[in-house]
Amino acid sequence: MSTTPHEITSSSEAARTMPTMADVAALAGVSHQTVSRVLNNPPAVSAVTRRKVQEAITTLGYRRNLAARTLVTGNSRIIGVLVSTTVLSGPTGAMLAIEQSARANGYWVSMASMKTQATHEVGEIVSHFVDQGVDGIIAVAQTQVALDATLEASAGRQTVLVTSGHVPPSVSSVEIAQHEGARQAMTILKGLGHTRIAHISGPPYDLHAGARAQVWKESLEDPEANLLVEGDWTPQSGYYAAMSLLSLSKPPTAIFAANDQMAFGVLRALNERGMKVPLDMSVVGFDDIEGADCSIPPLTTIRQDNQVLGVAAMDLLLEAIHGLPARQMTIPTHAVIRSSTAAPSH
What we know:
The protein is elongated. The protein is 46% helix and 16% strand. The protein has a domain at 19-62: 434 Repressor (Amino-terminal Domain), CATH 1.10.260.40. It has helices at residues 5-16, 21-28, 32-40, 47-60, 66-73, 89-104, 119-132, 144-153, 178-191, 207-219, 235-246, 260-272, 306-321; strands at 78-84, 108-114, 136-140, 159-162, 172-176, 197-201, 228-230, 254-257, 282-284, 301-304, 328-331, 333-336. The relative contact order is 0.11. Strands 2-1-3-4-5-11 form a 6-stranded parallel β-sheet, sandwiched between helices. Strands 7-6-8-9 form a 4-stranded parallel β-sheet, sandwiched between helices. Strands 10-12 form a two-stranded antiparallel ribbon.
């Protein structure tokens, strides 16, 4: 359908009547520079003046042109967040904390997830972030492939890595103390007198899983004992792994599951076998997710604070954006003793 001259005129008039910063300044009775300060650095303006400017903005329906602002200041106030495709509560909690911390500091988040975590995929995502003019990038890299690809694609840009892998000192990073957390789990069980301790690990390509499995193996009194079963972080994999361990001629007396979800599967398997926890088997998880205190029995686990992790990642990125040197941070874990662990009864 053709456009009439009247329609063209109406469109042009609408464009001309869009309120500008000068209109806001005139209505509020302040300078253009004062309006800019209210928008970009509110604490620098008195509460009375700030309120007048905000009322003028609301009255006029003024909206900032972010593209123009980026051209003038060189800052988009947007950060890119690159994550592994996952529905696990840990990474999800960290992502939420990053987003909330970013907004609290005046930034918005552009998020993308890695499906294959291949180098070309990470490169495409980082290129998209660059096209958006992001001020920095936070990458949650749980695999070595994702870590290496992110380091390559983001070279020369303000980047923070959330990972348990090795990061060069020139790049800021933050991680949960995976090794220490696994040691805490094993210390609980060994301190109760368990010597045949099985481990249900996460996927072999996962850096968190690898760290926890490594500590489990190093802590065994008999490193040759075949008590490792690989899971995939889901309750179903924990269930089948536990069934496999219970079929051994000499089953373990304790199971250290690499996350709480798999530990829940273990508890189901033991219940179906008519075994009592912790009388017949002790169980320790990792994460302390919501609901860990409501399992039957309440789960002994290792708490990792993903809220603190996400906030720390954003703090490190702000430091990088402001030109401060890169640094590495480690967030400690905490053992949470509940009712799923006790001394072996045999």
